[in-house]
Specification:
Blueprint lengths: L13 H8 L23 E2 L13 E2 L1 H10 L28 H19 L4 H17 L1 H15 L5 H24 L5 H17 L5 H15 L15 H19 L21 H8 L3 H8 L8 H14 L22 H16 L9 H4 L2 H9 L2 H5 L4 H12 L9 H12 L8 H8 L9 H12 L3
Antiparallel strand pairs: 1-2
Helix pairs in contact: 1-6, 2-4, 3-4, 3-5, 4-5, 5-6, 5-7, 6-7, 7-8, 7-9, 8-9, 15-17, 15-18, 17-18, 18-20
Length: 469
């Protein structure tokens, strides 16, 4: 979610460019460029890797669950392929479908789908039907198949697997673009096209292709209008899509908007320290500032934080009060409830995204199997290190320590390289002798939003970093 990311400008193929242009949003789109820096649920799918010599599928689905899946979509045959002893695997994973396709689809339908269905509020019966619908569409539409594969691979792209999986993601992404391009050339604006774009958006976001954000944003609006309006979306198949596709659109569109709004610029953007003293502010505003943690109050008093960011902090604080008695795994996460002000400075944008990281790590989102996609600990941490004003202003020392801690220590430790984590933690204290013990770090963290449930992970990461000083 931190941007500016480095986009694919220098490596974009002509075919890819045409496909993006076909979204009808390229004209007049504001694009930014930077240096290149790439980067169980109800359905139990038991995956065995493809045979290297034949490329044939060697995957088994349990008998009972297989029958449930088939019965749920009995009105439309999913595939003709039966695999021994009536075991049924409804995705044909030939090599022609691309690298790691079978592994990716197995991961999606076995691991990710139950979580996605829960997020959509589906019960067990509807969850099975929803899965069957997606199986059908992926079996007959390459754009959906490659979209699900690439999305699943992004969630599998953890430390130690990046090179192999990254190449597979790029392959499937290109296939999605080709399918989208062909459908648009045929004026085939349907739910399959919309589903493919809904999958493409988080994939591009994960890859850091920030320049496609405005293109996708306007393109999706144009496609929905051509489809006949938002109420027509999902009408072609209520099992596979229905209102679930509408919810997916709302999710990805809000994600794009959030990322565009919290874009980090390459130049210092601190506002002049001209915030009126507390005695000159309206009484209600004074009360809202005084209710903040002391570290944030100080930043308002020094003028580093401006009043447009205050409603966001109040919203986060209200969320904390609402979920304080709910265990982390059962909490819904938080996002800013109102559109972000367009004139937030870099530090304020960093603050907003840090709050999102903290909300995800202290809610059910923290251990979501797709955490690598939406949490983006590596990308956000690297972006944080590139904000010069965060590291050069003495008034921001404590805030930098807090931001570095929250951003670089995700609930799922597998989605960030320990070296990247240690580097930013050490950078945040800048060799200062006051911060050679966890207890001193902890006191500084408590000046901001502190989460007791994250304290053990934070302490462990900090002790590893401090041991290297």
């Amino acid at each position: 979610m931190f941007v500016h990311y480095d986009g694919p400008s220098k490596k974009r193929s002509a075919k890819t460019q045409r496909a993006v242009n076909a979204f009808k949003a390229a004209k007049g789109a504001s694009r930014s460029h930077g240096t290149n820096n790439p980067a169980r649920g109800t359905l139990q799918w038991m995956h065995i890797p493809e045979n290297e010599s034949t490329g044939e599928i060697e995957v088994q689905l349990s008998q009972t669950q297989s029958q449930s899946l088939v019965q749920a979509a009995a009105t439309v045959p999913l595939t003709k392929y039966m695999l021994g002893s009536e075991k049924f695997y409804p995705i044909l994973g030939k090599r022609s479908k691309g690298p790691m396709t079978t592994a990716a689809l197995s991961h999606y339908f076995d691991i990710l789908l139950p979580h996605d269905a829960n997020a959509l509020g589906l019960g067990d019966a509807r969850k099975t039907a929803y899965g069957a619908g997606l199986v059908k569409w992926s079996a007959h539409n390459d754009g959906v198949l490659h979209g699900l594969a690439a999305f699943a691979l992004c969630s599998m792209d953890t430390v130690g697997k990046t090179d192999e999986i990254y190449r597979a993601i790029i392959h499937h992404r290109q296939k999605i673009l080709e399918d989208v391009h062909q459908r648009l050339e045929r004026s085939q604006v349907d739910d399959v096209l919309i589903q493919a774009i809904c999958l493409l958006i988080p994939i591009d976001d994960y890859l850091g292709y920030v320049e496609y954000g405005p293109v996708h944003q306007k393109g999706m609006s144009d496609v929905i209008r051509t489809r006949g309006g938002f109420e027509k979306v999902g009408s072609s198949d209520v099992v596979a899509y229905g209102e679930n596709l509408q919810r997916s659109i709302l999710t990805v569109m809000s994600m794009i908007e959030f990322h565009i709004r919290t874009r980090i610029t390459s130049e210092s953007s601190l506002v002049p320290r001209s915030l009126p003293t507390s005695t000159h502010l309206p009484l209600e505003t004074q009360k809202k500032i005084s209710a903040l943690p002391p570290g944030l109050r100080d930043l308002f008093q020094t003028g580093i934080l401006s009043l447009p960011v205050l409603p966001i902090l109040n919203s986060f604080q209200a969320w904390l009060a609402q979920v304080k008695d709910i265990p982390d795994p059962k909490r819904d996460s938080w996002r800013p409830g109102s559109p972000l002000a367009p004139d937030l400075n870099n530090v304020e944008n960093c603050l907003v995204v840090t709050l999102v990281c903290l909300a995800d790590d202290t809610s059910s989102m923290g251990l979501h199997p797709a955490a690598a996609i939406f949490r983006k600990a590596k990308q956000r941490t690297e972006a944080l290190t590139g904000v010069p004003e965060l590291w050069c202003d003495p008034a921001l020392v404590d805030c930098a320590i807090w931001m570095a801690t929250v951003t670089s220590i995700p609930r799922n430790s597998e989605i960030i390289d320990p070296k990247i984590q240690k580097d930013i933690l050490k950078k945040s204290i800048g060799g200062r002798v006051f911060a050679l013990e966890w207890e001193e770090i902890q006191r500084k963290l408590k000046r901001f939003y502190y989460a007791d449930s994250r304290a053990d992970d934070w302490e462990m990461a900090w002790n590893l970093a401090l041991d290297e000083l």
